[in-house]
Amino acid sequence: MFKKLKKQLTDEQKHVNQVFERLCYVYGVQNNAALERELGLSNAYCTGRIKRGSLPFELIYNAAIEKQTSYEQILFGTPMKQVDGNDLLIIKQGILKSLLRIKAGNLMAKANTTDDLESIAKIQAESVESELTVHWAKQQKDSA
């Protein structure tokens, strides 16, 4: 009689949902339930991660290695061919800076859970994003 309304997803939840869509594509399955079966995950694993807005970094990493695809493609949905050589140098700088922060805080030694690793990955992503933002802003300014 009444239609059940779908709850609006936050931006984080949408991003996690898109990551699971890309993981399904990489593994050649139709939906999250099939992905859970394929990878031996618990029922509703994907739904739980989407609800929490928690990216499955370990799954992304394993899929990239296992399926020989780009980690960035799964995480961000952006093909690597769109990133030029200068951008790759900037990404490398961002990763290096994040590794220095991680080392200084002794964070790897303290990482005991997937959530701890996600926090470390977040540091890396923020550092890379920051470096790229500065680089692209400089490029725009130089071309203006």
Which terms would index this structure?
144 residues, mainly alpha, 8 helices, 72% helix, disordered N terminus
Description of the structure:
With 144 residues, the chain is mainly alpha-helical. 72% of the residues lie in helices and 0% in strands. The chain is globular.
Brief summary of the model shown:
This protein has 144 residues and is mainly alpha-helical.
Roughly how many Å is the radius of gyration?
18 Å
The span between the termini is 59 Å
- Class based on secondary structure composition and strand pairing: mainly alpha
Number of helices: 8
Overall spatial form: globular
Q: Report the mean per-residue pLDDT as an integer.
A: 86
Helix content: over 70%
Strand content: under 5%
Low-confidence stretches: 1-5
Count every beta strand, where a strand is a DSSP E run of 2 or more residues: 0
SSE order, one letter for each helix or strand: HHHHHHHH
Largest sheet: none
What's the structural blueprint in terms of helices and strands?
Blueprint: H1 11-27, H2 32-39, H3 45-52, H4 57-66, H5 71-76, H6 85-104, H7 107-110, H8 114-143
Helix pairs in contact: 1-2, 1-3, 6-8
